[in-house]
Design brief:
By secondary structure, this protein is α+β, with helices and mostly antiparallel strands. It contains seven helices and 14 strands. Helix 1 packs antiparallel against helix 2 and helix 6 packs parallel to helix 7.
Length: 276
């Protein structure tokens, strides 16, 4: 039976908000344990608490749909590559921000069908903002006071200017080397990968360039939200990201663009021509 995405997303929003509430308790108390994973990235007791809530809630909601989480272990590609549909979860996107006491972190939940996201929810516990989208139904943002449809900016190439979302600790030259000469740049900084993508989806930024390691769980929910808002998430060769097609969950470098109708090679330097 075909999944009713419009109905399902309401339940997934509730799950993300519940997980976000658990994270917020750890954040406000400052009482959490921190560990290092095998790749030396941080994970905390808040990550694990949120993961438990999301996993158990999704299993109750859709017992026949498997789940991949950043905190999952033992998922063998030969098994999971057969999955036509599965949940993709980052229970706490922006763990480094959380540990540093900064509010820019989120819960990401996506539903993947045939290697592409078709439903995505991103919840920011501190601000209580929730972003969501389902395929062909548009993208939305819910705040404490209102809910509205969101859309990315259309780029006027004649103006040759872009607002770029960056990490708080990012060096500007790590981004500017990817932009063609003559484009006037302004910057807006934020922590979580997903929340920077949401800046693009809601028209507060035109572009977010991500260089460095991310997992598929970092982009699953943002991708469908950005796409439904009229944008794109594409790799350094200008190709869309795909999911569960490799042994590794690592993404290539990618950029999040607000206007899917624009030929972004007019703004972004092609991979083999970039300046070192």
């Amino acid at each position: 039976m075909e999944t009713d995405l419009k109905k399902l997303v309401e339940d997934v929003k509730d799950i993300a908000i519940k997980a976000g509430g658990a994270i917020l308790e750890y954040f406000e108390d400052g009482d959490f344990e921190q560990y290092d994973k095998s790749d030396h990235s941080p994970v905390t007791s808040a990550d694990y608490a949120a993961n438990d809530i999301v996993i158990s809630s999704l299993q109750s909601l859709t017992p026949n749909i498997p789940i991949i989480s950043e905190e999952s272990e033992g998922l063998v590609f030969s098994d999971r590559k057969q999955w036509a549909e599965y949940w993709l979860v980052d229970p706490l996107d922006g763990t480094q921000e959380f540990v540093a006491g900064r509010p820019d972190f989120a819960v990401n939940i996506a539903l993947i069908q045939n290697n592409k996201p078709v439903l995505g929810v991103i919840h920011a516990p501190v601000t209580e903002d929730t972003y969501w989208a389902t395929k062909d139904q548009g993208a939305f943002k819910q705040t404490k006071s209102s809910t509205s449809k969101i859309s990315g900016n259309k780029i006027d190439t004649a103006k040759h200017s872009l607002t770029v979302a960056i990490s708080r600790v990012q060096k500007l030259d790590s981004i500017t080397k990817y932009i063609i000469d003559g484009v006037d740049l302004s910057f807006i900084s934020l922590g979580s990968c997903a929340l920077k993508s949401c800046l693009v989806a809601e028209g507060k930024a035109d572009l977010y360039i991500r260089v460095g390691p991310t997992g598929e769980w970092d982009t699953g929910a943002p991708q469908i939200i950005v796409e439904e808002a009229g944008g794109r998430i594409i790799d350094s060769e200008f190709k869309p990201l795909s999911y569960n097609e490799r042994e590794s969950f690592l993404n290539p470098d990618f950029f999040v663009a607000s206007d899917q109708s624009l030929d972004w090679s007019t703004m972004i330097i092609p991979h083999d021509s970039r300046r070192d």
